[in-house]
Specification:
This protein is an all-alpha fold. The protein has a domain of about 240 residues. It is about 70% helix and about 0% strand. The chain contains 14 helices and four strands. Strands 1-4 form a two-stranded antiparallel sheet. Strands 2-3 form a two-stranded antiparallel sheet. Helix 3 runs antiparallel to helix 10, helix 8 packs antiparallel against helix 10 and helix 12 packs across helix 14.
Length: about 375
């Protein structure tokens, strides 16, 4: 564990003044083409009987994993580049999901089981009107603003008091986990107006368009993919700025940063709030594609898994956590079908293996291997 928690080496960056190198831009363009062209063609135009057909199941699965990849990227910004390990980012992901879910529940209208303007769970609980925090839930624009503002404000307030008190290390991780667990218990209660342990499901429409059609799912897939690419480019730009270099200095020697006249509070608070908003947006994109949101997204294992994705892929690399999210969740989707009882054992073994043998993650291991090969070639 100590090897994984240690500060990662400085990431290999493109020459100063360039956002990405030639290979980096080639990879980004390949990803954009796959998202905008390849996936829609294979899903919507290639016949279902063809070996090249991309099934609706795979579209939903990849779309879900891309949402997870955004969370892993957000984790890399605070953990890999700033040295802040959060085990509570599942809370921000879930808050964004609930914000979108509230809007989708209102879009059901009278198509629910009880043919009421109220969501079915409210009718079942004998509620007569919407609670106050549902007042704007019928407006897509208002709810999307709340998806950003509510998690962002919560992260800002929590971070301000935590960072001002100079809480760090394992104590900060435990507090974030406790905060998330407390929120999960709150959302489990029926009287809070969030559907209790069942959460929200049975969505019908988004912006008046049926949500279960292949074309709608593909639009959500494309939006999610482009959002992931956009956040990656934003993160790459951010870590190359003065702000990003100060973050890395805080990670490596916070006391020296203070001695040089910088106030770490503003920098840590800024990146912490940004990462929370990224997770919230990922949660909002996740819900219409998966079709459900409930308090389990705030569970302790959910928060830990986000950190595992970043660790497995490679911290302080940006692309590594994305790879880690795809690798871990791809294996999870396969293993939970073939041998579901072994999934948690595999996840624990994977984390131990990364700690012992790949402390810099998959990307770090590949770079080390390529470096050795280059040295052998020169020799």
């Amino acid at each position: 564990m100590s090897a994984v928690l240690a500060s990662p080496p400085a990431a290999l960056a493109p020459p100063r003044g360039l956002l990405l190198g030639t290979k980096g831009w080639s990879g980004v363009m390949a990803a954009v083409i796959a998202i905008l062209v390849l996936a829609p063609v294979l899903n919507l135009m290639v016949p279902a009987g063809s070996a090249l057909h991309l099934s609706d199941y795979m579209v939903a699965l990849v779309g879900k994993i891309m949402c997870y990849a955004i969370c892993a990227l957000a984790m890399d910004l605070i953990w890999g580049y700033t040295g802040i390990l959060s085990l509570g980012h599942g809370l921000f992901f879930a808050l964004g999901g609930y914000g979108m879910g509230m809007y989708l529940m209102r879009q059901i209208g009278r198509d629910g089981n009880y043919k009421s303007d109220l969501p079915d769970f409210m009718v079942f609980l004998n509620w007569k009107e919407l609670p106050w925090h549902w007042a704007l839930s019928d407006s897509f624009v208002a709810q999307m603003l709340l998806v950003i503002l509510v998690p962002g404000l919560l992260a800002f307030v929590f971070g301000f008091f935590a960072f001002r008190s100079r809480i760090k290390g394992v104590y900060f991780s435990i507090i974030t986990q406790a905060m998330t667990y407390a929120a999960m218990l709150l959302f489990f209660r029926n009287e809070t107006g969030f559907g209790g342990n069942n959460g929200f499901t049975d969505f019908k429409r988004i912006l008046g368009i049926p949500i279960a059609t292949p074309s709608t799912r593909m639009v959500l897939f494309v939006i999610t993919g482009l959002t992931l690419v956009g956040f990656f480019l934003m993160a790459r730009w951010l870590v190359g700025t003065k702000f990003g270099r100060v973050l890395q200095a805080i990670r490596d020697a916070e006391n020296r940063v203070m001695f040089c006249g910088y106030n770490p509070l503003a920098y840590k608070l800024g990146i912490w709030t940004l990462s929370a908003v990224m997770c919230a947006i990922a949660g909002a994109l996740y819900v219409p594609q998966v079709g459900i949101i409930n308090p389990s997204e705030m569970s302790v294992p959910a928060g830990i898994e986000i950190a595992i994705w970043a660790a497995v892929g490679g911290r302080a690399t940006l692309v590594g956590p994305i790879i880690g999210a795809f690798f871990v969740n791809g294996v999870k989707s396969w293993l939970t079908v073939v041998a579901p009882e072994y999934w948690l054992y595999f996840l624990g073994a994977l984390f131990i293996a990364v700690t012992l043998f790949l402390p810099q993650g998959i990307v770090g291991g590949v770079r080390k291997l390529l470096g050795k090969n280059d040295q052998e070639t020169r020799a």
